[in-house]
Amino acid sequence: MAEGEQHHHLFHHKKDDEDATKVPGGGCSETSEVTGMGSGPGGIDYRKEEKHHKHLEELGELEAAAAGAYALHEKHQSKKDPEHAHKHKVEEEIAAAAAVGGGGYAFHEHHEKKETEKEEKEDHGKKHHHLF
């Protein structure tokens, strides 16, 4: 690039006359912290992290369901096609293992989501005392 040009970024549109500190090589130097209702004292957005783990948990559940359905399909194919029954049984076992893996991943992400909720409550000082 030419010496006088600056890099134009998508989110930090500032005019040349505004209070943007110039960085050697062009661009703007800005520091920003995440603030809002879901962010903690360290700038961690717990709601975003919780939604992320929930999304991954649902993907794990979807993987388990799809692999389980494929395993049932291969089981049916092994009975339907006796010439290639061994191949279908092997594929059934592989699909069953993938279903177990997907279920385990969903379980892992569920616990990550619960841990994020716990960290958010601890950071905000919201501890629920059970009366019963």
UniProtKB/TrEMBL annotation:
Pfam families: ABA_WDS (PF02496)
Region (Disordered): 1-47, 66-89, 106-132
Biased composition regions of type Basic and acidic residues, renumbered to the chain: 1-21, 72-89, 107-125
Domain of life assignment: Eukaryota
UniProt family annotation: Belongs to the abscisic acid and water stress-induced protein family.
PANTHER family assigned: ABSCISIC STRESS-RIPENING PROTEIN 5
Protein name as annotated: Abscisic stress-ripening protein 3-like isoform X5
